[in-house]
Amino acid sequence: MYMNKYLSNVPLEEGLEKYLSVLKNSRVRDTEYIDIEESLNRMSSDAVYAKLSSPFYNCSAMDGVAVKSKSTFFANEQNIITLIEGKDYVEVDTGDPIPKQFDAVIMIEDILEKDNNKVKIYKPAIPWQHIRCLGEDIVEKEMLIPSFHNIKPQDVGAMISARIDKIQVFKEFKVGIIPTGTELIDRYTDPKIGDIIEFNSRLFEGLILDYEGKPILYPIVEDNYEKIKHSVLQAIKECDMVLVNAGSSQGREDYTYDIIDEIGEVCIHGLAIKPGKPAILGHIQGKPIIGIPGYPVSAWVVMENMVKPILRKLIYKDLETAKIIHAALSKRVMSSLKYEEFIRVKLGFIDNKYVATPIKRGAGTITSLVHADGVIRVPQNIEGIEEGSLVNVELLKDDNNIKNTIISIGSHDIVMDIINDELIKSSLGKVSLSSTHVGSFQGMLAIKKHESHIAPIHLFDTDTESYNIPYIEKYIEEDVAIIKLVRRTQGLIVKKGNPFNIKSIKDLVNIRYINRQKGSGTRILLDYLLNKEGIKKSEISGYEREESTHMSLAKAIQNGDADCGMGVYSAANIFGLDFIPICDEEYDLLLNENMLKTDYIKSLLDVINKEIFKEKVISLGGYNLDNTGKVIKLKRKVKVEYSN
Amino acid sequence: MYMNKYLSNVPLEEGLEKYLSVLKNSRVRDTEYIDIEESLNRMSSDAVYAKLSSPFYNCSAMDGVAVKSKSTFFANEQNIITLIEGKDYVEVDTGDPIPKQFDAVIMIEDILEKDNNKVKIYKPAIPWQHIRCLGEDIVEKEMLIPSFHNIKPQDVGAMISARIDKIQVFKEFKVGIIPTGTELIDRYTDPKIGDIIEFNSRLFEGLILDYEGKPILYPIVEDNYEKIKHSVLQAIKECDMVLVNAGSSQGREDYTYDIIDEIGEVCIHGLAIKPGKPAILGHIQGKPIIGIPGYPVSAWVVMENMVKPILRKLIYKDLETAKIIHAALSKRVMSSLKYEEFIRVKLGFIDNKYVATPIKRGAGTITSLVHADGVIRVPQNIEGIEEGSLVNVELLKDDNNIKNTIISIGSHDIVMDIINDELIKSSLGKVSLSSTHVGSFQGMLAIKKHESHIAPIHLFDTDTESYNIPYIEKYIEEDVAIIKLVRRTQGLIVKKGNPFNIKSIKDLVNIRYINRQKGSGTRILLDYLLNKEGIKKSEISGYEREESTHMSLAKAIQNGDADCGMGVYSAANIFGLDFIPICDEEYDLLLNENMLKTDYIKSLLDVINKEIFKEKVISLGGYNLDNTGKVIKLKRKVKVEYSN
Question: Which CATH superfamily hosts domain A59-132?
Fold first, then answer.
């Protein structure tokens, strides 16, 4: 309807190759002379020749005495020779110059006796022994550092030694970053509805630094053809490469394409990748200009997979290959045949193998990049990858880091965040907890399938009106254990003052409800209560609207998007909402029994048994910690054993 | 004799463990609040909680129209529904807020028709479809970043989005660096005999940055107990860790031990490592203070293997494990049973496997660190490693870099440096040449043993009075080839003005000669000429004094350390020395025939056939390039075939 430009669908590799061939002969990098003290990590553009030898005089390699070797030739154990200071020797320390008349050094350890101005020796000195000759390290006028050399600390040391003052290096590669969008505000402005706080430019800044370019941030430009063009022209003049953020698609106010088309040349508009499709690759006067999509994850994919290889090529540096591990996929991934897809995953190291769990959230969620441990690339011609398949994961975090992470898949509670932070603090950053919120039921299945170390669960069994154990008896065949975590109060969260005067489940009819996702313990509880009251799901307006955490549910109520939802007291409390208690429930950690012996779980138990942890949880309100830390082993035949 | 302190011999790992246990509970790191724009690569000391949700209002995830889902429920292909702008819908672009009365977005692509203030739709909108709900990315008051988190670009983005202004991080870890030594001068002072230009502090500065500490450089302090103590006290007050360079052994003017012993505690003095033995590990008021030996390679070994793991531990960061490759050792390595030895090596990738060639030079040579590709650690209880053994090499360079390096082992000529620089320049830094100077004969054997890509040789056969081919016939059984490089003039290098009036080989008796190393073509030539003249080696004073390059030999003559030596015209020319021509010789590149097809050798041939290369060589003087670039194949039965 509004579409005025055609987006191509060029595969990533093909696009990169085509674009690089266009840029190939466009420019030679500028160089500059800089002081060697500023040269660390810069690249030499020309060879450096030594100006002084090192050492620049013959000097002693040992503490001892400098001698004439000829005067020592007949020394041996039967023929101790006495040398006279000044005439036959001088004392030298390591590094001291050897006077011209001497040609060897006898080290302290080989001197038999010393008194006043005499030494006695018992073996001859070989000519030039223990002398560091002039030029041993560096010979004046020799090539010290070649061209295109990345200056390392030892190179700086060598250059100082060789009396080099300045060195010719390639200038820093400036990358101009232009944020565009009328809705954008900077981070210092108070945001109003409709504003978007601009942060992509800071994401790009950090990434460009990581690629070893020099980011130059330009001010936000509103969606105005002439204004954006003006900014682009300025950046192209001042930089070696320009990134224009957003406006790269084919919407009403997407001007990047037309601007590049007017003052330069567009090579490619549209890549066969997801997210990241509406990227624009062009050049102005031979300088690359790239239109980057607005969603942060789309932008990140284009930065990592297009901007990075181009920039590294243009600064003559290698592109380190991503570190790859093999992981079993914990969940089926669907993918379009039209695009190569980049799926962010969390990784766990469980039973000595990696498990990758896709992060569900969209291209607009910067936090998915904060939390991702790796990325799976699903090729263009593949429809999806089945659960359990071994996949290649490009690591975004250190492997060690992943191996020291306790994986928690299951229900959400704020308590899990507190456990994470306490684990991190008590281990000085070595051990952490990674939580994925998929609800209690999925969490229990993750333990069954050995895809998680622990699963926080609160599964209410309607027959026995008890928590967790009946579900485990029914669904799990292995020996497992439960770590009692908290008893928490579930209830109905409503706006401050309870404007609809909600008192019980019966009052949920005719208000705007907001629900939790399928499989969550809270939803199972709601369904049970509705059933008990004889209320049909279809009578609840908003039953289908799902949030995956207590916090996001409470926030939606606070914002007036819904009138009521079920959740824990602590979430209501945090947002200053009213709360109608419904019941107390057992929020426990499920795990395979053999996990109890691992360091992972030992650290976890240490944390939840600490006073500081308990205090923090109590202060949230709505928690009872009487049983916290107790361990219940559930044997295959489900004899319940209590311990601790 | 002068020794007043006892050096212990503590194994590295044991020393590190012991020292860390002493430092263990000594200090908690200080923290500070900084602006998030400065937080990149810093570590959070406390968890960060979101101050604003993202998005902070419900907004459109697509370009399209916002609608009331209820008003669309009955739309289908048979029942086209018309919606009125303002009443039934508003236009929204991606990111636009959804007015409270609407609860779904229909995207452009699903709108059948639009004119003026009406749109027609043919399918219903599901409630909340294509809406990014408040808090989809970030929920206010949720934990955004945990403690002990290394801030990455995406974290900065997320914090801006969540309206975080400042973040609490651990303060930078300051490492004070104190260079001590009366003989030290800074790099701006004109050096006199006996001075040493101080550069270790800059080596340390770069390494500390690499370890993610913050180096603080202190001025040079002369060898004076009180002055060094004063500087140490100041640094200990201002920094988190202090490095005192040199003065760590037990010599006359080594004060570091006594100073630490007076104002703090020495934990270890002397490690079972070579180089690096006389290191001191101590602490003052719980802050680590380390005495580092003065020789740069010893210093580097202590920095990399002691300072680095300690610093990384104290800043709560992992120590990345060194990248290790397996290589065949090209030469036997001897090692002391008393120490763990660190042997620097050059690496070549030859016939699809790595070959490691030890770099011979001593602990005083900073250039050995410039040139090293890796390090072999020989354990304390091992006497040596045999030639051909597979060894673990810790990489100091990128693996790619090593794989793109042409290995040259053999004779030295300045021309090889020019080839290297031209190779680098024409490949934009991708391909380079690594030369090891062991003389022609060893070079030839390196080709025979497949330990080098090429060997520059000039082997004079006394029987045939011709170069190279007779040696190859005699020693090599495989098909090899020769690339003709240069014809060069060998002669006697003497001081300007030829004060001893040397005219021929006969005049070498009774002057101070300086020789080249055994196996070098130049030495073989000298021996032949001496023999021809009936002169005995023992008649040549200085016959045993060896230099391994023409440049260092010429420099020694210029400096007056010897009166004459044999070498090439270009070296004499560079140092303004006089030259008595003796003969012209063929300086060729020997290689296995199958190497001719490789990219390595193709790039090499490209370079030596270039005019720029030839011009540079000609300008040095003493070279003839009539045959440069010609290839001679020497088949197994040594039928000589000429080509090119």
Answer: Molybdopterin biosynthesis moea protein, domain 3. (2.170.190.11)
